[in-house]
Amino acid sequence: MVILGYVLALLVGLSLGLLGGGGSILTVPILNYVMGMDAQEAIAASLVVVALTSLVGLISHWRHKRVSFKVGLPFGLASMAGAFVGGWSAQFLPGYVLMLIFAVIMLSTSVTMIGGKKQQAKRKAPVPRLWVSALLGFVVGAVTGLVGAGGGFLIVPALVLFGGLPIHLAIGTSLFAIVMKNIAALGGHILAVTINWPVTLTFTAIAILGSLFGARLVSRISPESLQKGFGWFVFVMGLAVIGTEISTLMSS
């Protein structure tokens, strides 16, 4: 099962490199159900994995001029504050509640991904006002900090719909914001959770390889097609998480 988890780490990195998100959506269930970590540890470890993997992917996107710091910086700074609050709050909720919240986020973000092509076809939106960017960033950061997920799959649609960014630029900018808020969220979690660093860093190293490959492919493959297919995958995975947690609760 551990070997399977490391193989799936490539999928985590590929998702981040290609879509600018999806890392935690996949990492938390893999670490929880496949690698055997409890929910709180899996969420905290996923923040490490996704932050470091996103950082490497960000460098590649930045070199190809696919990052908007003008939009990403205020969004990212506000998301850091929200992520710390969410990360600190997670210790007061039982593991099964966190995983059910996580599953609901998986389902909602998968719907956003599946409908992404229609949204992206809309006319380019104006650059949002500072307070709008800050509010969006804080809300997304708080959700991510609480359950360790929902980052890129919330950020990318927000940057496209409200930030006026084309999809390829939104993907790179999403990685910039993810790095910022995941560091802040980890600060909230690490006060109450012990992380298995050898497993986490090995998982991260494999995910980084996947992200480098994904970043190279992003300009060659239609992001709309990738988002739609990956959205269905996340939708099924969300249903599986709900089914697993409900089954566990009924049998206990």
TrEMBL record:
Membrane topology term: Multi-pass membrane protein
Subcellular localization(s) per the UniProt record: Cell membrane; Membrane
InterPro entries registered for this protein in UniProt: TM_pro_TauE-like, TSUP/Inactive_protease-like
UniProt keywords, alphabetically: Cell membrane, Membrane, Transmembrane, Transmembrane helix
Q: Does the record's keyword annotation contain Transmembrane?
A: yes
Lineage, top-rank taxon, reads Bacteria
Q: What is its main location?
A: membrane
Q: Does the keyword Transmembrane apply?
A: yes
The signal peptide stretch is: none
Membrane spanning residue stretches: 7-30, 42-59, 71-90, 96-115, 127-147, 153-178, 190-210, 230-250
Output the Pfam families linked to this UniProt entry: TauE
Instruction: State the similarity comment.
Output: Belongs to the 4-toluene sulfonate uptake permease (TSUP) (TC 2.A.102) family.
Q: What is this protein called?
A: Probable membrane transporter protein
State the taxonomy lineage: Bacteria, Bacillati, Actinomycetota, Actinomycetes, Micrococcales
